[in-house]
Every structure is written in C-alpha cells, then in structure tokens.
Amino acid sequence: MKISGLKQKKSITKPKINLPAVRLRRPQLSRGKIALLIVCLALTAACCVLCFVYSARSGQLLTQQAAERYEGEGEQRYAQVSVFFPVGKEKSIADIYTFRSTINGKLLDVSLEAKDGAPPLWQDAYSGSGELTVEGNKGKATVAATGVGGDWFSFHQLTLRSGGYFDENDLMHDRVVLDEKLAWQIFGSYDLAGMTVVINNKPFVVAGVVAIESDKSTEKSYTATTGQVFLHLDTLQSLLGTGSGGVSCYGQWEETCRYLQSKNIHFVADAFDSDRETNASVQKSLEKLYSIAAQYGIRMQRCDWGTAQKGVDDFLLGAA
User: Fold this and answer.
1) In the 3-class helix/strand/coil scheme, how is the chain assigned residue by residue?
2) Within 13 A of 210's CA, how many CA atoms are on the CB side?
3) Mean pLDDT over each residue of the chain, to the nearest integer
C-alpha cells in the first residue's frame, strides 16, 4: 500500500544585487542665493499686499463703478473711462458735444449702433466747479458749486434725503440739488422739493436734497464747510460769467465686446489728444510718486481739482 504525501518544494535562492549607496546631500546655498530668495519672497508678499490695497481703494468709489452697476447680471460687458483736466485746461460744453460726435463716429466705423428699443451703447457725464452764494428762508451761505451735465447722477448716485435729481434734458435749467449740510443751514429742513432758493440773486427751484457720500476718500476731499449745491453746468457758467466753470471732469461708460475692450481708451485719448502729457512731464510725475503716497489726503485738499477719484489715483500710483 502506498501512502501519498506532499512533496516539499525546493527553495529558490534569489540572486543578490549590490546597489551603490545613495547619499542625500543638503543643497548648499551661497549668501547671494539666499539674499535673492529673500528678495523674491518679499516681492511676492508685496505684490499680494498691493493687489489687496488696489482692490480695496479702487472699490471705494461708487462713481467708478457705473459700468458694473449698469451691466448687472447680463451677458453684455461695459467699461468705464474717467478724464480729469488740470486747472487752466478745462473744456467747454461745445468740446463735450464734439467729443460725443467723435465717439459715435468711432462706433459707426466698427458697425456698432444701438438697436431699436435697446439701451444706449454708451453714456457720459461731465462737471465743472465754482463758488456761489445760496440763500434760503433762514439764511444764506457762499458754497462750493458743481455744475453737471450728461447722466451725472447715474455716475454719482448720491443718496436722496428728499425730492429727486434734475436731468440734462430739462426744458428749463432752473432746478438745483442741495446737499444736506447746506439745506439745513439755509432752510432748517431736508424736505425742500419745490421750494425756491436764491442763487446770486436769481430764483431757482430745489429738485432735491442729497446726503454727503461717506467713503473716506470723499470725506478727505470734501472741503465745503458750509455745504454744496449742484446745478446744470451751463447755468453755473452763466452765473459765474464768461470763461468760468469749464469742464474739469469727464466720465463715460460704453459697450465693449472684445473689440472695443482694447479700443475704448484710445477713443478718449484721440479726442482729447492735445491734452496728453509730454514724456518730460510724465517722468517728472513719476519722480514724485513716493512723496504723493506719503502726502495722501493732504494733497487732495491743496489741489484745486483734487477730487476723491484723484486722491485714490494718487494713493495707488504712490503705492505702486
């Protein structure tokens, strides 16, 4: 009788492989490389900080967000351009009308025009400044006056305390808007819509009363200690006399698409070509950037055309 069992397998001996020993060496950095690495890290951190500051500062001004407000959640995209003219080089209302014709011509050149019933492809606003004496039933004050045109109150959406705004297309340019400080000083009230106010001995109708903007840049640039009045620019010019109250600020937003996105800036630059700065003046300005940053807030109060927008521009340029 046979008894079967398990046959033991022979073990297989694996060949030995001798591998060369690998030693990990710590990278040796020279002092120069270490310094360069530190500089790169510092620059990266600085860029992150500047991007944050830029976003925070530029987002403070509602006047620079008209395009975003208009486009809303729609697919069409818009862009905004702002132009500030230095003292002594203000533009006339006729210049603005000529510029509008230039814009419309440029749009037609690329076969762009608004469809029937559709919103306009672009809107603009402009303003000039002066000083006027405003009188109500409880007093009078000499205040800063802002003459406006175009869709100014669409760009500058000042909060209404009462009443409403006036419009460029008003038949009679005899309505004005008071800020809350002036309204309280000369009337002792904010509910003034329809009331009569006397400006430089001429009667006007109060369209509404607005609150003062609360952002820090506006607060720093707001030098009117007794309030402010807003009126049509041509009315301001007639009250001040010939050669006064020219256009010192101009803004526009327009439909961009991909083609206009790279062209809209050139439209403005070409239309106001005579006002481009020379290389020498640009270089001189660049040399002052750090001092501008250090004086942020002070320069706005000293500069005649130092608006809140200009103050933010100074800060951003200085920081860069």
Assistant:
1) CCCCCCCCCCCCCCCCCCCCCCCCCCCCCCHHHHHHHHHHHHHHHHHHHHHHHHHHHHCCCHHHCHHHHHHCCCCCCEEEEEEECCCCCCECHHHHHHHHHHHHHHHHHCCCCCCCCCCCCEEEEEEEEEEEEEEECCEEEEEEEEEEEECHHHHCCCCEEEECCCCCCCCCCCEEEEEHHHHHHHHCCCCCCCCEEEECCEEEEEEEEECCCCCHHHHHHCCCCCCEEEEEHHHHHHHHCCCCCCECEEEEEEECHHHHHCCHHHHHHHHCHHHCCCHHHHHHHHHCHHHHHHCCCHHHHHCCCCCHHHHHHHHHHHHC
2) 21
3) 69
- Tens-place pLDDT, residues 187-214: 999 999 999 999 988 999 999 999 976 6
**For residue range 248-283, what is the model confidence (pLDDT) as tens digits?**
566 654 444 334 444 444 555 455 554 444 445 545
d(CA 256, CA 70) in angstroms, rounded, equals: 13
* CA distance linking residue 208 with residue 177, whole number of Å: 5
